[in-house]
Amino acid sequence: MKIPEGKQLVFFDGVCNLCNGSIQYIIKHDKKDLFRYAPLQGEIGQKFIKDRKIDTSKVDSIILYEPNIAYYTKSTAVLKIGKTFGGGFKLLGVFALIPGPVRDWFYDLIAKNRYKWFGKQNECMIPTAELKAKFID
């Protein structure tokens, strides 16, 4: 998996409408061009999951990978991504004061119902030509 130097990789559920909308939101607000993206269902996502023995029955919607540092899941991944946007998004840091299991309970509630509430696509999102460079395949 070749991730450009200084970039972080956001793995996401490529068939989830909420997840795809969230990726579009991140792209729009990623003024520092920090993130690259890959669907969990893709070859790289599947290899990442397998290599780290991630239980996809517990983590199946978002993973933030900081190469050579760590990877983060669920609400921690969301908070770390939002924190990079600066401005008012820094206020999200207050949620980090809430214990992870409590934050993740709310995260899991949304993740469990995401297809029912927001819908699902038959296949992973195909990025536009303009955005293709931001996706790792």
How would you characterize this protein structure?
- The protein is α+β, with helices and mostly antiparallel strands.
- The protein has one domain (8-131).
- 37% of the residues lie in helices and 14% in strands.
- The protein has 4 helices and 4 strands.
- The chain is globular, with a radius of gyration of 14 Å.
Break the fold down into its secondary structure elements and pairings.
Elements: E1 8-12, H1 17-29, E2 35-39, H2 43-51, E3 62-66, E4 70-73, H3 74-83, H4 100-118
Parallel strand pairs: 1-2
Antiparallel strand pairs: 1-3, 3-4
Order of helices and strands: EHEHEEHH
Q: Approximately how much beta-strand content do the residues carry?
A: 5-15%
Structural class: alpha+beta
Instruction: Tell me how many strands there are.
Output: 4
If helices are DSSP runs of H or I spanning 4 or more residues, what is the number of helices? 4
Q: Please summarize the sheet with the most strands.
A: 4 strands, mixed
| Helix amount | 25-40%
Q: Average pLDDT across residues? A: 89
- For the biggest β-sheet, the strand order reads 2-1-3-4
Residue stretches low in confidence (pLDDT < 50, at least 5 long) are none
- Subunit arrangement of the protein: single chain
